[in-house]
Every structure is written in C-alpha cells, then in structure tokens.
Amino acid sequence: MAGTAKAPAAEVEVAGHTVRLSSPDRVIFPERGFTKADVFGYYLAVGDGIMRALRDRPTTLQRFPDGIGGEAFFQKRVPARGVPPWLTTARITFPSGRTADELCPADLAHVAWAAQMGTVVFHPWPVRAGHVDHPDHPDELRVDLDPQPGTDFADAVAAAIELRALLAELGATGWPKTSGGRGVHVYLRIAPRWTFTEVRRATIALARELERRRPDLVTTAWWKEERGERVFVDYNQMARDRTIACAYSLRANARATVSTPVTWDELPDVDPDDLHLGSVPARLAQRGDPHAGIDDAAWDITPLLEWADRDAAAGQGDLPYPPDHPKMPGEPKRVQPSKDRDRPR
Q: From the CA atom positions of the chain, what is the Rg in Å?
C-alpha cells in the first residue's frame, strides 16, 4: 500500500519577505497532534506579542527538527551560509570569551524563519542591539519564581503577589507571565545603564528582601538541599549568558503550553495548562497583550543597588554563580554545603 503523500512546501509572505515552509505536516507535538504548520501559524498569529519580546534581542533558538521527543539542541550561532540575505544577527561575547552571531529578530519574518528551522522555544538575551555596548547592559530585569518540590504554581503566584507589593513600594512596575510550567516570571523594564554584574546584584537584593518578608514562602538558597518546600528566586537568570523563554514562546512539553503574559488581576485564577498553542492566539486577539505597555517607561534600579550595599555591610555579599560561569570576584565557594569541609558545624 502506498504511503500517505507528504504535504508540499509552501512559500509564505511575512513582513515583506518570503519564508519557505517545508514539511508542514511533520508532527511537532505528538500528544496534541500539532504540526510544523501549526507552530509556524501560531507564531504568525501572536506576531505583535512575540515581537514585543524579541525585537532587536540576540536570541538563542531551541530547535526540535523531528518534534518534541526527538533530537533537540540550542543554536546560538546563525549559519554563515544558506540563510536569507535579509536575516539580521547580533554579535555577542560569552563569559568564556567566545563569540557568536545570534539571530536578532528585526521583524516577524525572522521568527517565521526560525519556526521553519524547527525552533519551538525562543530564548532572548535581556539586551537590545542598538544600545551602547548592548551585549553588556541589560534593559530587562527578570525575576524567575521557581517552585521547588512540595510547592506548585499557586505558591509561585503567591510569591509574585508579594513581589508586586514590594515593587509598588519602590515605584516600579512588574509585568507577570506564566513560565509555561509551574513557575511565574516577572519582568521589569530598566534603563540600559548597568552591567550584568550590577543588575544581578540588584536582583539578589530584591530577592533577599522578598525572602525576609516571606521566609515561609520564598528562598534565595542556591543549593537545593537548603531550599525546602519554598519558591526559589533564581537570581542567576540575570547572570550573563543566561536566558529565559520569552513571552509568547511555546514550551517544549507535551502540552504545547505557552509562556503567556497575564494581568496581575487574573494571575491568581490562571491555569498554565489552559494557555497553549491552540488557545493563546484567540486570547491575544480578544484581550490584547497584557505586556503592551512594558516599553513605556524604564525604571532606575538605584534603590536596589542601595539595598545591596546595605546587605553587604551586614555581611550578606554575593551568592554563587552557575557552575559553567567563570569564577567572579567576591563570589563565595561553589561547594554544596553538606560537602563543604570548611563550613562551620
């Protein structure tokens, strides 16, 4: 018996460019039956929202050429050959000193091209090309509220609500979104005046203040053995070369969920599993983008840096970096506390 004929490739006009969509019927999310054409169409449908998150940002692509469950890899370098002449890139330098020309979406055609290449998840840097020294000065402070074993999305929401109150005291506006899993992300638009080291230090100060107010709910402990059943504020998401799936990015799970911007009012009632490839485009069309105003004003993080100075004077200095990051001045030992022979008992 003859096999089922494959759907032909198509050429789609996107933002004034022609993007080729091959193998449109290839299944990317087997459990839901979503195909490559569905992923491609999804990203076109949420174009305004995802471009607000990606425009002019060096972006790492998480690709699944054979679909979820198949081979996956992170692509940081756009190939030197075989790409459209209109594709925009930005050169970034990693902490190791190596460089890469990453995709830097100037329009929605860049997102469509990435989807054609099997990209499911978009991981932009918190910097924008065009800023002075753009790879080194973030314009986005990202707070990642990560529930630990024994906690769930409701706990992350509770931590986010506490964070919102704290930000209000500082005169800052936070923009929440689901992670696409059990976590919550809160973004702040900041002026691109400070280095990654300074913005990470500010994030630690914010996380510590949140922890002081709700020690039962929140932890800044890097080592898992010390976190307990609390929500971890992953301050190292502001370390250089660390990225988070952006607003309106699909996530690489069987449910095809989306990291979805939400309003503060609706956050307590959201079910992340309801926000997926099949539902988010209609939601965006009907309600608009809750992050539509994120670029209206940039906040000055000086109060957080003052808190960091206060904490340092009280003996609370830096916290460990990720294991693959170069050792930083003033950083404590990267030794699991239970294995640290020099730790006071």
A: 21
Q: What is the pLDDT of residue 1?
A: 39
Pairing of strands 10-14, 17-21: antiparallel
pTM recorded for the entire structure: 0.94
Q: What is the rounded distance in angstroms from the CA atom of residue 126 to the CA atom of residue 246?
A: 10
Mean pLDDT of 258-279: 98
- Centre a 10 Å sphere on the Cβ of residue 295 and count the other Cβ atoms it contains: 11
Token output for 191: 């002026």
Six-digit token pair at 209? 């203040």
Report the SS3 class of residue 238. helix
Enter the DSSP assignment of 131.
B
- Beta strands 231-233; 218-219: pairing state: parallel
* 3-class SS shares of the chain: helix, strand, coil, % to 5: 30, 20, 50
Give the whole-angstrom CA distance, residue 109 versus residue 214.
44
Q: If you average pLDDT over every residue of the chain, what do you get? A: 94
Residue 90 backbone dihedrals phi, psi, to 5 degrees: -135, 135
Amino acid at 231: V
Q: How confident is the model at residue 133, as a pLDDT?
A: 55
CA distance 295 to 312: 32
Contact 87, 216 (CB under 8 A): no
Q: What is the DSSP letter of 318?
A: -
Region of 305 please: left (phi>0), alpha (psi -120 to 50) or beta.
Answer: alpha
For residue 214, pLDDT over 60 is answered with: yes
52 CB-near residues (< 8 Å, 6+ apart): 247, 289, 291, 292, 294, 295
